[in-house]
Amino acid sequence: MKRWYIDKGPDSDVVVSTRVRLARNFEEYPFPSRCSREQQREIIRKTVEALTGDDAEFRRGFTVIDFKNMDLNERLVYVEKRLVSKELAASDQEVGLILSNDEQISIMINEEDHLRIQCLAAGMQLEKASEICNYIDNLLSQKIDFAFDDTFGFLTSCPTNIGTAIRASLMLHLPALTMTGHINALLENCGKLGLSVRGLYGENTEARGCLYQLSNQITLGKSEQDIVMSMKTIAYQVTEQERLLRREMMQRNGLQMEDKIMRSYGILKYARTLSSEEAMERLSDVRFGIFAGLITNLDETDVNEMMLRIQAGSLQKFAGRSLRSDEMEAVRASYIRNHIAKKDKRFD
Amino acid sequence: MPICQVCKKREATVFLTQIINGKKTDMYMCRQCAGEGYKIDLNTLISGLLGLSWGDEEIGTATQVACDRCGMTVEEFNRTGKMGCSHCYDVFREPMKVLLKRIQGNTRHQGKVPESYAAAHAAELEVEKLQRELRECIRVENYERAAEIRDRIRQLQSRRGGRQ
């Protein structure tokens, strides 16, 4: 499987990516915030041993990343790729990261819980991602006694994760629902159904690039399958509404929509400086334009990749140095120009 | 951690709230002192944890304020919203049930059970069943069968011990 941001997944006109995450804790140690550094190191060592085991071929598929000694900028790249949380990146504790070479599976060690087993996939692939998490969990369980209680299920540091300790989330691109303002009613309804929706990249509920993250709130009292299935059902309804609205907008205001999309495309193609906000907004328009059949030399994976690479950490890695904010805007614009130019050439 | 207000020596792990005629008094105590003078119910609701009001009734309630394994206190939980270790869930089981009912809408796990846990649990149940059978065999003086059962019980128990 390719990395989620350069792969084409099912329903990718609306569902950008899927993520499933399981929280697990060792029975024998206190939760990470109360562990000594020595205990934290033991947890990392035991997890690596339990995962890699004796199967040499399986072992080759994973890399243990020296996250602790990595500088902050580089850590940020992992956050932007969604491989680790902001909390892990900011931690000064003995944190660890095991990553599959295809960047599909990541295991965060000593974040809020001892282990966070996570699987990422392009588009809508909830079942597949949860199967993979389950497989890794089974494998680790053979060597590690996880904290488990008959009544409460898997025990976690925070009671909001207890039980199945599963968090399934979908990154959704909802430009039509956003532009028409229907998004607010949608957010409210999802809340009533036990799902949370929040903007991605932006702070709080404000979404940047019309990207939203839909995830389950309830982790206790429902099976993993029920949680995943009900989320899938709701996500399909949202997807259908978004598609319907997009078609309607193109039919009713075709010229204006086309104008908006192509202007954004033009700006991305020629601008010399781009703020993060503007870039995300223009890329969102282009993503819409791709699925409306207006832009053909780019596809959704180009947009996914650009949205990722123009974030602060990735840009500085690309530039090979720390950047001031005005420099950042110039590098961002030049990165996007180059990416589009490369694709244009292919079609000349 | 506060010092016991009764013996003024040991660490206080119990927090006693008494409301008598509308007057509230709070007291930190160690388990020993608390056990001597007061009836302690560890499962009494932790008011802070749950944000419940006690009203003006005359109630004397005591709650354990710290986990005896990791030392997490109720006050810490109220501040961070995080438990200290898996044993905290045992210590604060009853108030946690109320809290979970509120935040999760449920208090009973329905999903995956770790294989090792399920296996250990199955072995436990089988041992119980065999022990009943063993007693019956001894009663009817079927010693040959009793010996078989005894061996089977030992086998199951050693396997369980082997994992830990």
TrEMBL record, chain A:
Residues 14-245 form the Phosphagen kinase C-terminal domain. Its EC number is 2.7.14.1. ATP binds at residues 17-21, 116, 167-171, 198-203. It holds the Pfam family ATP-gua_Ptrans. One of its GO terms (cellular component) is extracellular space. PROSITE patterns: PHOSPHAGEN_KINASE (PS00112), PHOSPHAGEN_KINASE_C (PS51510). One of its GO terms (biological process) is phosphocreatine biosynthetic process. Gene3D superfamilies: Glutamine synthetase/guanido kinase, catalytic domain (3.30.590.10). GO terms for molecular function: ATP binding; creatine kinase activity; protein arginine kinase activity. It catalyses: L-arginyl-[protein] + ATP = N(omega)-phospho-L-arginyl-[protein] + ADP + H(+). It comes from the Bacteria. Keywords: ATP-binding, Kinase, Nucleotide-binding, Transferase. NCBIfam families: PRK01059.1-4. Belongs to the ATP:guanido phosphotransferase family. Catalyzes the specific phosphorylation of arginine residues in proteins. HAMAP family: Prot_Arg_kinase. This is Protein-arginine kinase.
TrEMBL record, chain B:
Residues 124-159 form the UVR domain. PROSITE patterns: UVR (PS50151). It holds the Pfam family UVR. InterPro entries: UVR_dom, UVR_dom_sf, YacH. The keyword Nucleotide-binding does not apply. GO terms for molecular function: cadmium ion binding; cobalt ion binding; copper ion binding; kinase activity; zinc ion binding. It comes from Thermoclostridium caenicola. Gene3D superfamilies: UVR domain (4.10.860.10). Coiled coil: none annotated. This is Protein arginine kinase activator. Keywords: Kinase, Transferase. The keyword Transferase applies. One of its GO terms (biological process) is stress response to copper ion.
